[in-house]
Specification:
Blueprint (H helix, E strand, L loop, with lengths): L2 E3 L5 E3 L7 E6 L5 H17 L3 E4 L6 H10 L1 E4 L10 E4 L6 H9 L3 E4 L3 H15 L3 E5 L5 H7 L6 E4 L2 H4 L10 E5 L5 H14 L13 H14 L4 E5 L5 H12 L5 E4 L15 E6 L5 H13 L5 E5 L11 H15 L7
Parallel strand pairs: 3-13, 3-14, 4-5, 4-6, 6-7, 8-9, 8-10, 11-12, 11-13
Antiparallel strand pairs: 1-2
Helix pairs in contact: 4-5, 8-9
């Protein structure tokens, strides 16, 4: 199928037999926790001025990080890189108590943008550790969310990285063990891991409610429906975004002939579209919609202008800003109401 690059890198293709179309998954893109975290950094910059420091990437998306850097955010790996007394935002993935204490010791003004659904898992870890349970945390070693959750009860947590690893885990008391999970995993793979753990530890307890977040589940359900009819699936998201990477895996597992992840439209390889009639498109939970629209524009230039949205759920959840920002912004409004004079 002859193909040439068009203006501004857009994909241009000669017509082929059959109907070229795009199946656009919904829900996709930003979840409530990501939206809250990004707005928290923006509001902090507005309120305190640049620079505002952020420990780790606020969310796992290179475009979002670059945009916030342009506004004056400075991303650091650890709080000891932040000047004493400065404002620092904790990312949506959460932090351990050790990080909170380190920030306090340096006199930093911390804003906790941890997703409330991650905070829920932290609280579960604290509660089960207090009751002396061994916690099998299903997730990926080295991921910030896993480090934060494990840090709540380091003496009680064992990370289980995969279903295969479930077959080798050793516990002290098989009658007092519970599983928790990272919020951004593949639902199917997580439940396979749980099944294999339960075969070895029949009294394994479940978390009180789902740990995998609603947005991760919804995006996986949507791409499952799209994948069965897709010759190719394009997932917009960054390489360090766990939920974006999982979407590629789920698409392949549920029938897509091929699936790839891209940060930007210009990363789409011309050979991916050879012989393709139906392209599925979705995006991870930390991806702004503008990046999806750029992919759709490039696909339209290649002849895939027929776009049908495949919707499997409605999302209307919203989270309030971190309490530190809410309190400070409220105080600023009170100050303005008094004509700029502080209360006596």
């Amino acid at each position: 199928m002859p193909r040439i690059p068009g203006a501004r890198g857009r994909l241009v293709d000669l017509p082929v037999a059959g109907r070229k179309r795009v199946l656009l998954a919904a829900p996709r893109g930003y979840c409530a926790g990501v939206d809250r975290a990004v707005i928290a950094v923006e509001k902090a910059l507005e309120r305190y001025g640049a620079p505002v420091y952020v420990r780790k990437q606020i969310v796992h998306n290179i475009h979002v990080v670059t945009e916030l850097e342009a506004q004056g955010a400075i991303f650091v790996d650890e709080v000891d890189e932040v000047p004493t007394g400065a404002h620092v935002v904790f990312s949506a993935h959460g932090v351990s108590p050790a990080v909170v204490n380190a920030a306090s010791d340096r006199g930093l003004q911390a804003i906790d943008a941890t997703c409330p659904l991650v905070t829920k898992v932290h609280r579960e870890a604290v509660r089960f550790a207090r009751d002396d349970f061994e916690i099998l945390l299903i997730g990926h070693d080295g991921h910030e969310e896993v480090e934060g959750t494990a840090g709540e009860a380091p003496d009680h947590v064992t990370v289980v990285n995969s279903p295969a690893e479930a077959d080798t885990i050793v516990v002290k008391d098989p009658d007092k063990v519970v599983w928790l999970s990272q919020t951004t995993l593949s639902v199917d793979e997580t439940m396979d891991t749980v099944r294999r753990l339960r075969e070895r530890f029949p009294n394994l307890q479940d978390p009180p409610s789902d740990d995998i977040c609603y947005a991760t589940q919804n995006r996986q359900v949507a791409i499952k429906k799209v994948a069965k009819d897709a010759d190719l699936v394009i997932v917009v998201g960054s390489a360090n975004s766990s939920n974006s990477v999982r979407l590629v895996e789920v698409a392949l597992e549920y029938g897509a002939k091929a699936a790839y992840r891209v940060d930007y439209a210009h990363e789409i390889q011309q050979e991916w579209l050879e012989g393709v009639e139906t392209v599925g498109v979705t995006s991870g939970a930390s991806v702004p919609e503008v990046l999806v629209q750029e992919v759709l524009a490039d696909l339209a230039g290649a002849g895939y202008g027929d776009v049908a949205e495949v919707k499997t759920a409605e999302e209307d959840l919203m989270f309030s800003l971190p309490k530190e920002l809410r309190q400070d912004l409220a105080g600023k409004r009170d100050e303005r109401a008094l004509g700029g004079r502080t209360r006596s």
